[in-house]
Amino acid sequence: MRTKFMFLFFKSPFENLRRHAEVVVSCSSLFEEAFNAHLRGDFLTFEALTDKVAELESKADAIKRNIRGHMPKGVLMPVDKFQFFMYLREQDKVLDSIEAALFWLSYRNVKIESQFAEDFEFLVRLTKKAIDLMLPMMDLAVDYFKTGLKEPRTKLKSIIRDIRQVEHEVDQLERELIKGIFQSGGDPVYLFHMIRLIETISSITDHAQNASDMMRAMIAE
Hints:
Blueprint: H1 6-9, H2 13-40, H3 43-69, H4 81-106, H5 114-132, H6 134-147, H7 150-184, H8 188-218
Helix pairs in contact: 2-3, 2-4, 2-5, 2-6, 3-4, 4-8, 5-7, 5-8, 6-7, 7-8
């Protein structure tokens, strides 16, 4: 493992990476609340919560730019810089995809048909589960890179497996939902809107898994 002395002499770039993770994870509850408001037909609440997510996305972008723009030259990182920035990219795309899903949902103030509402709720709940795992993953990473101890690394690997399992469950539900919507027939515009929505929500856990895969690469020994 690379030297950990960097943590003794200057502010670790992982501190801002954790701040970025905090913003991303803070959007998971807003995402679920906004989606459920839309399911109820409460479009005003949905719009207000979507605006909050957009505000947090701007905050996360500012942190991301700070990380990219203020990395000290020649700093000795405990991980490969390419892997570090790829992790940041995927973590940021989790929030981008949350925002994209809510924006796409907002384009048509039409309630999701009741026969699919329960599956959509479950899809969003699974997505939130994957997002919420990203902060403890980052906490354990900071601990591991500071100490080099085995215990945080073991716990990290467990969280990475959990995120991968959630992503697999989301993929299965995505296929089932798309199949059900196609078989329901109906208005082609509604079908397109719903299928694109499912794919966009599913992409959130794709990026969460990509981030966890990059974390696995960073802690490889």
